[in-house]
């Protein structure tokens, strides 16, 4: 692997958090003539890194050691994607060119210094699409068929006949029209549901959603949906988008499903909407404070399903995340376009693109 295929310090300025000069005799940050890759991994290193370890100097680090690992590093792999350690260690990123995060959401690393730098940011888009879509369909079926109540009655050894709801013909509004949102729409349509979407701008005749409404008009369109699914990326524009105003505009008895980010919803307003009966239930996989505190009323509220940020985590998901990074490392080392390049102004990979 040629050193110049990653970067040439004689023609490229460093793109990390601090100015630096290239070390003499090497096109990389290390002393071996190979690129240096820092990996933020906590106590558990990712498996499947043999190819990268053969081609690069790999520095595995936890949050406390990240700054040391970043000095002279050319790339950073954020394997511990829930960690908030990167902003605090950014001052040491004196040569960084590329940052890859092992998640679809990039909000843990999209801080102002990274936004303003020339460091290329990529994510792991594509791993979680189908699993999260299956999760959403699963919780919709659980609500419609009253499965949670059936389980409670079984434990009480009570034989209580009930009638349940149809799924076919129900209306779903998917808020967030990226790849995961499209997978959700396709899956729900297969179950016979009527699906529309909400995104940055209005679109008619969308292949996956039919109609896409602008999210800044969300309260005008949630009222027709039996299920509202939140899968939008977390940005300044989407933070707190599900507030008291939107919940009160929803159909009485509608269900709210959040598989995006906990910060998309104002938790107090959500609890109020559930407590008053405005919402008929909620399936929540993400929360603004994780783990969900033991004293949160969401744990024990009726018709609320709590899962610990696991809607996309199926058997083999960690291997898939490493495979995406290794593939991107191979492209990066060869000077080829990367997959899943994030627009740092938007906060996600623009629809219809995967490379630069």
TrEMBL record:
Q: Where is the composition biased (Low complexity)?
A: 14-25
Q: Does the keyword Oxidoreductase apply?
A: yes
User: What does the sequence similarity comment in the record state about its family?
Assistant: Belongs to the D-isomer specific 2-hydroxyacid dehydrogenase family.
Please give the Pfam families that the UniProt record associates with this protein. Answer: 2-Hacid_dh, 2-Hacid_dh_C
Where the record annotates domain D-isomer specific 2-hydroxyacid dehydrogenase NAD-binding, the positions are: 138-311
Q: Which UniProt keywords apply?
A: NAD, Oxidoreductase
Q: What is the lineage of its organism?
A: Bacteria, Bacillati, Actinomycetota, Actinomycetes, Pseudonocardiales
The molecular function terms in GO held by this entry are: NAD binding; oxidoreductase activity, acting on the CH-OH group of donors, NAD or NADP as acceptor
- InterPro entries attached here? D-isomer_2_OHA_DH_cat_dom, D-isomer_DH_NAD-bd, NAD(P)-bd_dom_sf
- At the top level, the lineage of the source is Bacteria
In residue numbers, the region (Disordered) covers 1-31
Q: Which residues form the D-isomer specific 2-hydroxyacid dehydrogenase catalytic domain?
A: 45-342
The name on file for this protein is Phosphoglycerate dehydrogenase
Instruction: Spell out the CDD domains in the cross-references.
Output: 2-Hacid_dh_1
